[in-house]
Amino acid sequence: MILSYGALWLIPVLSLPLTLAVAAHLPAMRPYSLSLLPLAPLPALATALFAPEGSAFEAPDLLLGAQLALEGNARLFLGFAAFLWSAAGIFARTYMRGDERAGGFAALWCLTLAGNLGVFLAADVATFYVSFACVSLAAYPLVVHTRSAKAMRAGLVYIVLALAGETALLLGFMLAASSAETLLIADMRESMVDSPWQGAVLTLLVAGFGIKAGLVPLHVWLPLAHPAAPTPASAVLSGAIVKAGIFGLIQFLPFGVDLRFWHEALLWAGLATAFYGVAIGLTQQNPKTVLAYSTVSQMGLVVAVLATALQQGSPEIALASASFYALHHGLAKGALFMGVGVVGASGKRSLVPVLATLTLPALSLAGLPLTGGALAKLGAKPPLGGGAAELLFTLSAVGTAMLMLRFMLKVAATGSHEPDARPAAGLLVPWLATVAAGLIVPWLLFTGVTGLPVAYPLAPDSLLSAFWPAAAAGVVGALVAVARLGAPGIPEGDLLIPTTDTGARLLSMIPARPHWIAALRLPEKRLMLDRVAGEWASRAERLLSRWSISGALLLMLVILATL
Question: What does the DSSP 8-state code read for residue 3?
Answer without folding.
Answer: P
